[in-house]
Amino acid sequence: KEVASLSLVSSACDVVCAAYASTKERHPCLRSVCDAAEKGVQSVTEATASCVQPVLATLEPHVAAVSEYASKGLDKVGEKLPVLPKPVGQILSDTKELLSSRVAEVKEAVSS
């Protein structure tokens, strides 16, 4: 949940979902294949969920410990990578701005 809530991750997922939906709309043949795949995944997920539930209940304390450890690790990664809380659009915009600034500096250095 914590990883999914990061702006970078959630905005990247939004971009992928929009591209997927757009592709399904533009290509009817792919739409039917995607719809069939979605139904298959949904059926497998539902069947697996009922079988796995007892195992998950047994592993709950271990999962909680691992989750806490992973959360601390994610916090440390977030400190070292300040780009994580930014959405994809802002990262792209910042990167374009930085590149154009560097190109301008190089042009000026070459011309002088």
From TrEMBL:
Q: What is this protein called?
A: PLIN3 protein
Q: Does the keyword Phosphoprotein apply?
A: no
Q: What gene name does this entry carry?
A: Plin3_2
Tell me its family. Answer: Belongs to the perilipin family.
Q: What is the lineage of its organism?
A: Eukaryota, Metazoa, Chordata, Craniata, Vertebrata
Offer one example of a GO biological process linked to this entry: lipid storage
**Database matches in InterPro entries:** Perilipin (IPR004279)
Does the record carry Cell division as a key word?
A: no
Where would you find this protein in the cell?
Answer: Lipid droplet
Q: Which GO terms describe its cellular component?
A: cytosol; lipid droplet
